[in-house]
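Handout, section B. The chain below has 357 residues.
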Amino acid sequence: MYLNQTKNLKTKRVNNKHVAVIGGGIAGMEAASVLARQGLKVTLIEKQANTGGKLNDWDHLFPDFSSPEVLVNSLATKTKDSGVNTVYNTEISRIERAGKRFELRANQDARFYADAVLVASGFNVFDATIKEEYGYGLFGNVITSVDFEKRMKKHGQLHTIQGTDPKRVAIIHCVGSRDAKVGNTYCSKVCCITGIKQAIEISEMLPDCEVFCFYMDLRLYGSKFDSLYLQAQKRHKIQFIRGRLSEAAERADKSIQIKAEDTLQGRPLRMTVDMVILLVGMEPGASTSQLIQKNQMTVDENGFLKSANVHCARNQSTQEGIFMAGTAICPMAVNETIENARSATTEIIHFFENRRP
């Protein structure tokens, strides 16, 4: 009987509580729907005109080449069916405590009140123009991995700026990651497998095209990532060169001459290709940075939101009642992001159950 009374008390503490979720990407959508199904009132606040985040621009996911559109639509259906109140075109600029609650202020002077806040504001993509030596923004045949996905989703094909099929493509790993010169010494975690996925897609689309991957070292942590790497080598004849690009220059015919060092062979390398694809990494989101500055939340050494405890309280921020999920914490793959969002909901429910009235 005592256990039933305790359970009922905890249920009462959770029911009718209001959670504001900042960010309508896959982490925010998943967390919002899970919380709503547990009986909480949830407001999902998205700064864009639609939910789904950066996956709306992606063509296929690794390692199974599935459609991100299917995933985003599934999450959108879950949020709608669970009764989540989704607010669009609204960017939260400030979170203030109001007693035991929070007041969230938005860019249009709109205000929201909540008993807990979940920050799922995502990440920014590294600006490849910062690496001037790679020629992005200067040479038409130098694109990023994000550009590749957008082109494939919109056109279903890859052409040079001249409108021709590329015969040789170089894919450059670790652009904006593991690079002290740009201030990002961490690994963005998904770039290596993204490069392998895109290399395979190019090979299947253009069988006569030579594809070269220039890498520092391959970091393939997923259960199917190594098999995809072997498939790229054996079936698709992708050539992996251990070395970092030092310079790219445009020739008169718009092809790109690249200079690198083959660190396995210990010799400099010069090559002419039709296209260069830069695998750009993840950076802390701009929206997250604004919230941090105004709410005494702290960041880790890489600029992402700092957890109360990296092992056992990863979804708790350094401010009581404010939680976080997904790539606002650190670089994550899609499946990790969704799992992390579910973990955040457990922390929030536990917070309400054990909070004194």
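Note. The chain has eight helices and 18 strands. Compare this with the example in section A.
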